[in-house]
Amino acid sequence: MNERFIILMEKFFENELDEKEKLEFDSLLLNDHLLKKEFEEQKRIKEVLDKMKLKNPSKEFWDGYWTSLYNKLERGIAWIAISIGALILIAYGSIQAVNQFFADKQTPLIVQIGTVALVFGIIVLIFSVVREKYFTSKHDKYKEIQR
Amino acid sequence: MIKKILKNPKLTADEKAEFERLVKANMKRAYFAALGFLGSHDLAMDVSQDAFIRAYRSFKTFDNKRNFFPWYYRILKNLCLNYFRDSKNKREVTFLENVKNMEDSSTPEDFVENEEVKEKLESAMQQLKLEDREIIMLKEFQNHSYKEIAELLNLPIGTVMSKLYYARKKLANEFERLV
Asked: Is the pTM of this model over 0.80?
C-alpha cells in the first residue's frame, strides 16, 4: 500500500490535512480506484468504531480506586511480613524437632535412616521445582518486554 | 498507623505523595488500557492496580523528567501479556458500549440492532492479533494522539499510522465476515 496515501488518509480522519495535502489526497482518490476502495473500507469501519466507546465504570469506582490500591499495597507488605515470620518459625521448629528426634536414643536406627532419606528427598524435590521455575522465568518469551 | 505500615525506606514522603498524585492522574488511562487488552472490568481493575503496585516498588528507578504513563504502560502491558500466556481462552469479552443505545431516542428495535453490531465488533476485535487490537484501542477508544501512541509503543509516527491502517483493515475483514 502507498505509504503516502496512508499518512494522508490518517490525517484526513483527524481533520489535519492542510490545503495542499487535501488536493493531493483528492487527486489520489480520483485517479486510483483501488485507493478509493481502500478509503471507503476504512471509512466504513471508522464509522462503526465511532459509534462505540469503552464501558465506563461508575463514579464510585473511580472514587474508590486509590483506596483499593492503597489497601492492596498495605496487604502486600503484611503478606511479606507474615511469610518471613512463618519461615523463621518453621525453620526454628524443624531444627528443634530434628535435634530432639536424633537425640532420642530409643529411636531405632532404621527409622532415623528412613527419616534422613525422606527429608533429603523433600529438599531435592523443592530444589528441583525452584530451579525449574527459575529456568522458565529466564526463558520467558515475553521477557523482552521490560518495565 | 497505615502510613507507618506503608513506610518504605526506599521512598521519601515527597516521592510517595508524588506517586499518589500520578496514580490519581493516570488511573483512568491505566484502567482503559487494561480493559482494551483484557476485555473484562474486574480483570482490568486488578491488573491495572497490580501494575501500579509494581510501579510503586520500582518508583526509585523512574526518571521523573519523563512522562509517567509510557513507563507505567510497559509494566501494564507486560502483566497483560503474562495473563494471556497463563490463561488462554478464559476471557470474558464485554468491554464496549454502543453510544447510540445511550440516546433516549433509541427504539427497542434499534437497541437490539445496535447491540448486535457491538457484539460483532467485540468478536472481531478478539480475532485480531494483540498488537493490532492494542493500536486500535489506543487510537479509536482511548483517543491517544499519534504522538502519544508513538511514545507508548516506541515507534515512529509514520509507522503508527501504517500499523493503524493495517489493523483497521484486518478488523474490517473480520467484521464483514461476521455481519
From this structure: no
